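Thread: quick sanity check before group meeting

JM: Hey all, I'm pulling together slides for Thursday and realized we never actually wrote out the predicted structure for the chain we discussed last week. Dropping the sequence here so it's in one place. If anyone has concerns about the input, flag it before I start.
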Amino acid sequence: MDADSAVASAAARTEHDAWGAIHIPAGVPWGAQTQRALEHFAISTERMPRELVHAMALVKRCAAQVNAALGALDPPVAQAIAEAADAVMAGRWDDAFPLAVWQSGSGTQSHMNMNEVLAHLASTPQRTVHPNDDVNRGQSSNDVVPTAIHLAALLGVERALLPALDALREAIQAQAARVTDVLKTGRTHLQTALPLTLAQEMGAWAAQLVQARRGIEQAAQAAQGLAIGGTAVGSGANTHPQFGERMVQALAAATGLALRRADDAFAAQAAHDALLGLHASLRVLAVALRKIADDVRWMGSPWLGELRLPANEPGSSIMPGKVNPTQSESLLMVTAQVMGNDVTIGFAATLAQFQMHAAKPVLALNLLQSIRLLADGMRSFERHCLRGLEPERERIAAALSPAMLQATRLARHIGHEAAAVLYREAQATGRPLRELAVERGALSAAQFDDWVKG
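JM (edit): ok, ran it. Output follows.
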């Protein structure tokens, strides 16, 4: 044995699984299957989301406790597994989960990574905890992984996304309450249209967010049904008949979420329609946010000049003092990524055959990223842009032309075509519509004043 081999041997330990012996770096808490996965799936840099890892640890914690209560696992072993899972959920072992997302479509490699790490942490010189026989008792990747994805997504929506959405909506409503007296030019097709108040314009943004929230809440209800207890194909083979129901109760108690067993365990493992629906509701939110961010960007531009944007940071490396709509641009990129994630999830949702959906990791990666991006993006936009917007009242008033509103109201009395001719002439000559209408004999000054009131 040469010197390099001797050093490598000293820095590694040997473990066995059904495929034989494998060398594992000394000091790491995973086992043979994780090490094989590291070697066989060395693909790109995307790792399993931390939210999913922590949710899987929660599933394992509850499973150990439920199995102990059902007499299927020794209480001391269950307690050791639960304590190890708590340490993982606290983030103390994040580096122990190094596997790429690009692995088996069931997520088995990451599931075994969890089983092995918890078994390692729970073992003592006097007691060996087995990753399959103890940590994974009564479970399968096919029910644990989708259950963990649902939990991670629901927790992200409940604890991060909805609070950020509500904060943004409330900030918009607060801004609208300050500008109820600001009448401004409306725009359709990017052209001048009937006037409205700035409060009405902002109120429409808030209404979009209310509608998006309703859709997310409805989609989240469908995602509350969990696959746990179905084991390999949905039949519940190799687990206690009460395991699934007790797991749902334990997970609900641990998270505060309104959880239930899936209406059909076979469907819950063979397809992930509920997650597809949940992300579809996020797509609706992304579209609403894109509208809001783009409106703010245009209204803060020198061409319109209706809003003064917060000067958070220098906008240019060469042009001194420049202020750019950076928060709008950041949120627009967030929405672009979410829309792209929706395409990926839509295709991934089709990769189900017979009793198993075979693209769980990529579905989880994109779903959880969208939740995280939208929550962070809304929070940033609300704090660093929306709160600091100020109306440019003089600029708004100067740009407001009454001619469009006047012509629209006159049309009810003199006809659409006659009103359109007057409006076009007013635009071309710059003369007041009232003056032209009276001059052309279309109506009297008194009639004009009366009819344009509404």
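AS: nice. Residues 141-178 form the longest helix (38 residues). DSSP finds 18 helices and ten strands in the chain.
JM: adding both to the slides.
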